[in-house]
């Protein structure tokens, strides 16, 4: 399984930096860093966390906010992947990384009625919108690589309206068991173009 995850991530990384990213030294730096990164055997979530961060870098390279997400089934197989698509190719306010991964899965597997044993890994702690979607989806566990003190909602899940708070007790929301270096990488990648894209949002309601 580790080789499959590594091969999948390497294939994605190979294509990064050919267009938008080729003009961004930070994208190229993190591409090389992720290519050289070795999974830590003491961190059980490291491979999946790494792949979500690879997708986050792909997201930045495509002109979007740096968040990537993957859905893993009970056997540990990656069955759906996504990254933020809010800004490019055209504006879609709903297409956060978690949303894209879930949309793909639900469209391709309409007959699966329970996500017991499934885990969604996301490079950044989920925002309020995505948190509600994840609760609705029934995904067994939702693990983030990096916390998000500005926009993350997992740390404030107890402040949700009672219906959503009660439903969330069926699930696990927590930080992934990955290296601190990988967590820092996820945050740094998200920050590459965060302010630039936030300005786009501000102008939409100006």
UniProtKB/TrEMBL annotation:
Cross-referenced PROSITE patterns: CYT_DCMP_DEAMINASES_2
Signal peptide: none
Organism: Methanosarcina acetivorans (strain ATCC 35395 / DSM 2834 / JCM 12185 / C2A)
CMP/dCMP-type deaminase domain segment(s): 43-167
Name of the featured protein: CMP/dCMP-type deaminase domain-containing protein
Gene Ontology MF annotations: diaminohydroxyphosphoribosylaminopyrimidine deaminase activity
Top-rank taxon, per record: Archaea
Pfam families documented for this protein: dCMP_cyt_deam_1
């Amino acid at each position: 399984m580790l080789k499959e995850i590594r091969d999948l991530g390497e294939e994605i990384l190979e294509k990064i930096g050919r267009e938008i990213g080729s003009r961004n030294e930070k994208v190229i730096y993190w591409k090389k860093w992720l290519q050289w990164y070795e999974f830590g055997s003491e961190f059980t979530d490291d491979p999946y966390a790494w792949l979500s961060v690879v997708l986050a870098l792909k997201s930045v390279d495509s002109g979007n906010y740096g968040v990537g997400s993957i859905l893993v089934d009970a056997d540990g197989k990656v069955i759906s992947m996504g990254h933020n698509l809010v800004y490019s190719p055209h504006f879609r306010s709903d297409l956060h990384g978690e949303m894209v991964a879930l949309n793909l899965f639900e469209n391709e597997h309409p007959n699966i009625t329970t996500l017991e044993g499934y885990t969604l890994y996301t490079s950044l702690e989920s925002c309020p919108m995505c948190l509600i979607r994840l609760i609705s989806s029934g995904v067994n566990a939702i693990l983030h690589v990096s916390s998000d003190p500005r926009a993350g909602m997992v740390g404030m899940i107890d402040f949700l309206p009672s219906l959503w708070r009660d439903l969330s007790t069926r699930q696990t929301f927590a930080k992934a068991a990955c290296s601190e270096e990988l967590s820092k990488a996820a945050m740094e990648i998200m920050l590459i173009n965060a302010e630039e894209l936030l300005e786009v949002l501000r102008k939409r309601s100006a």
